[in-house]
Every structure is written in structure tokens, then in C-alpha cells.
Amino acid sequence: MGAVSKIELRLDKEIASFFKSGDFSGYPVEAGKPVSYADFLENKMLIIGAIRNGIPYSLFDLIQDYTPFTESDWANFLDISTKSLQRYRTSSEHHFKPIHSEKIIEMAEVTKVGLDVFGNMEKLRLWLNTPNYALGRLKPIELLKDSYGKELVISELTRINYGILV
Predict the structure, then answer these.
(1) What is the pLDDT of residues 110-153, one digit of tens each?
(2) What are the residue boundaries of the Antitoxin Xre-like helix-turn-helix domain, all occurrences included (predicted)?
(3) Cβ neighbours around 11 below 10 Å, total
(4) Which residues pair with 95 in a beta bridge?
(5) Which residues does 91 contact at the CB level (< 8 Å), separation at least 6?
(6) Whole domain around residue 34: which residue ranges?
(7) pLDDT at position 103, please?
(8) Is 109 among the domain residues?
(9) Does 89 reside within a domain?
(10) Is the CB of residue 45 less than 8 Å from the CB of residue 27?
(11) Long-range CB contacts (< 8 A, 24+ apart) of 59-66?
(12) How far apart are CA 114 and CA 41, in angstroms?
């Protein structure tokens, strides 16, 4: 079993635990049926519930390990210092605020789409850090700080996946 498979299993376990322990009444969580990480990223209502409840640091830590982004990238996306990000690990406030939770989930979505397109993390990392003509010659990673940029990056990944190159 490869490293990616192990982390996916850990993500499945952590996301199932999160949805089991939080207040998700009114959201499509079936009693007794664990939610997988893939199911979570496909279900906008579950995403909304997670944002409103706040992503726990334990889940963020796994997502951070699963994505191609550095700690510095994460601090930039979340608009906090790396020191503040490290404080989350040890603070009594173990859940991120909704604004940060939303950004964490957006980066998880970009990673999922990128892996679907490129098949492995190294190719995705290379693409994210290479200036892209279709994205105004910016590196895709430079656009991920805001949701409009994220949408442009996902749209470009989708075009690549369907062979529509600009």
C-alpha cells in the first residue's frame, strides 16, 4: 500500500470521526454510515456543514500532508502567519474559523481535481509552480489565495483534463 493510500485511509477515518462528533443535524449525514473524504469533497451540503462547524486541526493536518502545498503556502492562503498556523496546533481552539475552514476545503478541492488530471502529486506540484499562458502567465499557485483565482485554476485543470488547451 503506497503512501498516498495510507493518508487517504487516515483522511477517511478523520472525516468520519469529524462528522460523527460534530453537530450536523440538517445536513445529509446518514446515521451509522461513515462519510469518506471523497464523499465529503463531492457533497456541497457536507462542505457547508464542515465550514460552519470549523475544520478541526487534526483534519487540517492530514489535508496539509495530502496536498502539494508548503506550510508557507498555507499561511498565505489562510492569510495568517506561519507562527499563527503553528499556534493552532497547540492552542485550546482546535477548530479553524469558518473563513479559514472554507479556504482549507478549497485547497483540498484543487488537490483532488489536480490529482484526477495529473495522476500524481509531483506532476501537480510542477504544474502549480509553472507560469501558465492560459492564466495570464501567472503560476496557478499564485491565483489560489482567493476563490475567484481558485475557480480559474480548477477551470484550467478541467480544460486540461478534456484536452482543451489554449
Answers:
(1) 999 999 999 999 999 999 999 999 999 999 999 999 999 999 99
(2) 48-108
(3) 21
(4) 56
(5) none
(6) 3-161
(7) 97
(8) yes
(9) yes
(10) yes
(11) 59/11, 59/14, 59/15, 59/18, 60/88, 60/96, 60/104, 61/89, 62/7, 62/10, 62/11, 62/14, 63/11, 63/104, 63/107, 63/108, 65/7, 66/4, 66/7, 66/8, 66/11, 66/108, 66/111
(12) 13
With a threshold of 0.85, does the pTM exceed it?
A: yes
166 found inside a domain: no
Nearest in space to 121 (alpha carbons), one of 110, 108, 111: 111
Chain Cα centroid distance, residue 144: 11
d(CA 97, CA 33): 27
Number of domains in the chain: 1
Q: Is 128 within a domain? A: yes
Cell of 144: 489560489
Q: Which amino acid is at 51?
A: I
